[in-house]
From TrEMBL:
Keyword ATP-binding: yes
Reaction it catalyzes: adenosine(37) in tRNA + dimethylallyl diphosphate = N(6)-dimethylallyladenosine(37) in tRNA + diphosphate
Annotated stretches, region: Interaction with substrate tRNA: 30-33
Function: Catalyzes the transfer of a dimethylallyl group onto the adenine at position 37 in tRNAs that read codons beginning with uridine, leading to the formation of N6-(dimethylallyl)adenosine (i(6)A).
Organism: Allotamlana fucoidanivorans
Residues engaged in binding substrate: 7-12
Cofactor: Mg(2+)
Oligomeric and partner information: Monomer.
Signal peptide as annotated in the record: none
Protein name (database record): tRNA dimethylallyltransferase
GO molecular function, one term: tRNA dimethylallyltransferase activity
This protein's record includes keyword Magnesium: yes
EC numbers, comma separated: 2.5.1.75
Top-rank taxon, per record: Bacteria
Length: 297
């Protein structure tokens, strides 16, 4: 079972209840929660939540380690193979759509392109900034521009190097020739009205500040150049700590950028017409019944 939905909607709480009901483990597909150095800013499960059910792929990597979606796909499939020897079902949860799809649908395979293209794009990033690359992607592949995390330079550069190197949109290679999976996936989506989602995001950001986000980011200043830290909640506080922004503005930017991220998440997840969507306040038992029915289809 794959529990998906926008950030701050309640996926962690639901996944724990489902794991308890089905007596199984949880695999996280939240790519930011892989890193043990990033806890508050990624809204990682609390110690009590982690103790309630066995979790996999939470805080198992350092930000100094290179870990991408391909490596995660291999690791997650190995983990699932092991778990399915003892369990009939496994719960997967997370808001990183690319990582969810890599496990449930297979990883997209792209043609090899000239490495000099990436070098050129990285040079553009350093000299002209991310905005220039985003504009290029908007021109070459509007579909990808509207669906990938365009605030992530790595994702933008990856899409652009395929567009430039193949003369075809990056999006045209998605969902082509994927491997079959030896398991059935039941996708459970949580959602709410946009105003509620945004309110929950604002509340979460306020809670992160209260829990010590600024001190967490301050401890990571020597590593701010790493790609893992070029993400919402960290890059804004870096600007505050370096005197570029005041704190109130940095917090408002975290909220704004998180709302944009949630919008992209919904765009990505709604592409799958087989997902069973539920209001975030739906009783767990109702969702359990829907899952049980799907398990026997």
């Amino acid at each position: 079972m794959s529990v998906i939905g926008p950030t701050a909607i309640g996926k962690t709480a639901l996944s724990i209840e489902l794991a308890k009901h089905f007596h199984t483990d949880i695999i996280s597909t939240d790519s930011r929660q892989f890193f043990k150095d990033m806890q508050i800013g990624t809204a990682a499960p609390s110690p009590d939540e982690l103790a309630a059910v066995q979790h996999h792929f939470i805080h198992h990597k350092s930000i100094t380690e290179h870990y991408n979606v391909g490596a995660f796909e291999r690791d997650a499939l190995t983990c699932l193979e092991h778990l399915f020897k003892k369990k009939d079902a496994v719960i997967m949860v997370g808001g990183s759509g690319l990582y969810v799809d890599a496990v449930t649908k297979g990883f997209d395979h792209f043609p090899d392109v000239d490495p000099s293209i990436r070098e050129s794009l990285n040079h553009t990033l350093k000299t002209k900034g991310l905005g220039d690359l985003q504009n290029q992607l908007r021109t070459l592949d509007l579909t990808s521009y509207n669906t990938i995390a365009v605030d992530n330079p790595h994702r933008v550069i990856r899409a652009l190097e395929i567009c430039i190197g193949t003369q075809k949109p990056y999006s045209s290679f998605l969902n082509q020739g994927k491997s079959q999976r030896p398991f059935k996936t039941i996708s459970i989506g949580l959602m709410a009205d946009r105003t509620i989602i945004y309110e929950r995001i604002n509340q979460r950001v306020n809670s992160m500040i209260d829990e010590g986000l600024i001190d967490e980011v301050k401890s990571l200043l020597p590593y701010k150049h790493l790609n893992a830290l070029n993400t919402v909640g960290y890059k804004e506080i870096f600007k505050y700590l370096e005197g570029e922004w005041d704190l109130d503005f940095a917090i408002s930017e975290i909220k704004k950028n998180t709302r944009r991220f949630a919008k992209r998440q919904l765009t990505w997840f709604k592409k799958d017409s087989k997902t069973l969507w539920f209001d975030y306040q739906t009783p767990v038992q109702t969702i359990v019944e829907a899952i049980s029915e799907q398990m026997h289809v």
